[in-house]
Protein 1
Amino acid sequence: MTTRPFRIFRGASGAGALREYATEVSEGMVVLDAVHQIQAESAGDLAVRWNCKAGKCGSCSAEVNGVPRLLCMTRLEDLPADRPVTIEPMRAFPHVRDLVTDVSWNYEVKRQITPFTPRPPDAPDGTWRMQQSDVDRVQEFRKCIECFLCQDTCHVLRDHRLHEAFVGPRFLVHAAALEMHPLDVADRTADLRKAHGIGYCNITKCCTTVCPEGIRITDNAIIPLKERVVDALWDPVAGLARLVRRRT
Amino acid sequence: MTHAHLPVVRPFRTSRPDAWWLQPLAVFLVLGGFIVYATWAALQNAHYTFGPYLSPLYSPEIFGSSPHALLGPKPAWWPGWLPFSPAILILWAPGGFRVTCYYYRGAYYKAFWADPPACAVGEPRTSYRGEQSLPLVLQNIHRYFLLLAVIVIGVLLLDSWNSFRFTDASGATSFGIGVGSLVITLNAVCLAGYTFGCHSFRHVAGGMLDRLAGHLVRKAAYDCASCLNRAHGRWAWASLLTVAGSDLYVRLCSMGVLTDWRIL
């Protein structure tokens, strides 16, 4: 057992400062374990949101040493031992208290995206037929646990605060899961361009880097959607091809 | 109850203790170095061929003074006040392909414009339009540059084939392998890996379809493009270095600084 120093953000509604703590740590401990230990030993009123402690509920999102991470999946032994571990709340969302932020904006955004719109059933019993290989591509997006770390690291939301104009990587993944689904027939390209602001993404891939589920957000969701938007709204040759197809 | 955000992090400030600046700095130096070298080399109009080898910066040589020129020497209509080089006629196409490439965009927005400097590092500007409006919305032209890049790949593969065909003093042509043949071929392979792993190519190959199961050829093309796409960044850097390396090799051989060793 060794004692490690921590710096944890304390305060409410955007105001506050880093406060120093120390606690004994042992092999295999994650940051959330240390936060709970500090809570028990010296900061009983420290607010932290958590639930499953298994990297599946997405509740304990915060910033560890400046990087958006799940507290329950960040091992202390993976962090530099020669300096304090800094733990701060996510910066892209309104701050409630200590490490807790208000992520309700995300749920409002999700409601704005055209929901799953399947084609009429393929069989008289009301069922559909589709190939597994066609569903594989969108199943990657279903791994999302909605931890919103991708939203937190996205500079469009984090630094430019363009929450009104840009839905963020999480909801571009959600839109991709619907738009690429073999049964879905809704067209979201105009919304993606205007209401969802896909053009604000400048492909820094920070969202992909922090995703705890390893979803290739930029390569497999955002860029394919950008390409579909170009097909529908920008590419004159693709527009001409559509026109010819419609005429014939 | 409404809550306030934490203040925006100040420019270039972060709680990250790692050397976050290292990657953008490396991108700035390598990409900047390549741009300077390629511009210099393209304006030389000399030492771009050696035997069967043709520098990729000058290929295809549409007009020029070497035996590789497709349509003969510099045309008479070329304005006298404008410096001529075969590279000027073609470099805009692969250059445009790289400038508008999704991978490079992400890399140079960080390294050259600090937009952002690195992930979770404060930005030096307050306004932001991204690629939502002019001028950066023009990056969507990438798919047209892809078309040109595919044509260039065909030409480079032909150059690679020609680099194994050596002409002796009597004018007879025979098969041979020089170190330059391998350099030219490696460059063509790296450029093909980069081009066919391009996000736009992946889209055209099959990504635009929701149902690929019935399209065997497009499914295979999409799977291949997806496989290459997983390492698109690595192909991008490898091909950048092989383009500069191939030009340098041909240039040094042509200047007599290097000897092109024949393996066969």
Note: Residues 104-247 of chain A form a domain with the Fumarate Reductase Iron-sulfur Protein; Chain B, domain 2 fold (CATH 1.10.1060.10).
Protein 2
Amino acid sequence: MGPETRRGRYGIVMASLIAGAAVWEAAGHVVSGAFWAPLSATLESFLESARSGFVVRQIMSSFQLYLTGLALAILAGAPFGLVLARVRWLRVALENYIMMLYATPMVALIPFILSIMGFGFAPKALVVFLFAVFPVIYNTVEGARSIRPELVEIAYSFRTSEWRLWCDVLIPYTLPFTMTGIRQAIARGLVGMVAAEIFLSPSGLGQMIMMGSQNFDTPGLLAAILIIVLLGVALMDFGRFLENRFAAWRGV
Amino acid sequence: MTAHTLSAARPATNGAVLRAWIASPLFLKIAAGAVLLLAWEVTVRALAPAYVAKPLAIARVFTTVISDPQFLAAAGATLGAVVGGLLISLVFGTAVGFAMGRIDLVERGMRYYVNSLFATPMVAILPLVTLWFGYSADARLAVVVFAAFFSIAVNACDGARSVPLEYLEVARSFRAPPRHNLFDIVFPSSLPYLLAGVRLAAGRALVGAVVAEFFISIPGLGYYILYNSRTFKHSEAFVAVILLVAVGVSFEVLVNWLTRRYLPWARRD
């Protein structure tokens, strides 16, 4: 594991990234401009809209939507999951429905939301919320199921107060699972965000994609997609970081 | 005293039986379902316009919709694309994932591409796919494959990398040919990962098919929902949602069952 191996490792990664960029560039020159654009033209289009502040405005607008929906999903989903963790009969009653909603492709509800709530911010935030909330609840409940009953019994035999029981048993035990849910919610919420921005009222990055496609501006379209890809990667890494940060005390 | 206890015992057992039945999981689940449906019906009646879907209205149109040939054709088209896309992704995704997991050079060369495309929401590439494939069923298949391929590849790669080193060493000391390495060691020990990948991929493929139909407007469940909700036939549209949920849940249940039944050593979560 000397410096040479390490250099070799980065060398291959760099070579693959450079090769990718070269293929992208070459494809743009070979294929008709309607299908693909060179990397240089894409970056140029990105810089141009960055200079006018357009990109920043669109990203901010998307972020506002994304964070609103995601925050609501976490704030509603995690406490609800914890209540289900504590109240056994409620969990038994609802867990199959939660699993069902977890497996539901929420995009299918977008046309209903459009025709009931119309355009505007609220229906779009609702879409992000619906995409993100069920992974949080589902995983929190899964965690709740894994709490060893002995722990609660011991807490009872020491006459633990309800408050201490939540702080010392329930929350620490379910938090790693909730974090898995939040990681999934981070990824699903992004899908919800782009879907809402394309299929409900256009705004943010979704609008950038649609503008690129409708104006036959392939470099603009690719630039918008590239931003979303990078955003997706960054968010996924952040989600993994969160999950690993709290996975340490996950009892096996 | 004895008489008193005896006379009190009878109603008490009846009460206990009733109470036990009420506390039984099945009853709780059914009751919760009934309460949720009732709440939906009441809320929509009280607050929402008449066209909004509610349980009784959906139940009324349910049989008409599921015997409608147009609906059946839509369901067949969507599910065909989902299953076809999943099979394509399974074959190629496993191949790419195994190559990445076992060959260091491939892994280093492809990691960034596979990971970043895995993190990309498939909705974002819809316009690009329609540029390439036109407004056709091929475009839908392409979106489904894009949605499913990378989760299978990523999981196959993790699986191939998790193969215990001793197994491969034993195989090497017996001079096993690479073919045996692949099919007798790498494949079985990454099966649990592959199944987890398929589970994830199935959900994403379903979303991909619906989203593609919204965008491309070709016959399918997604388009059926879009068309009927635009003409304010929400109850009819919701039957398609129910079918999608049923398919999503069946995939989930099927994969969980397969894992439990055939891969008992894989109960990691």
Note: The CA atoms of residues 180 and 243 of chain A lie 6 Å apart.
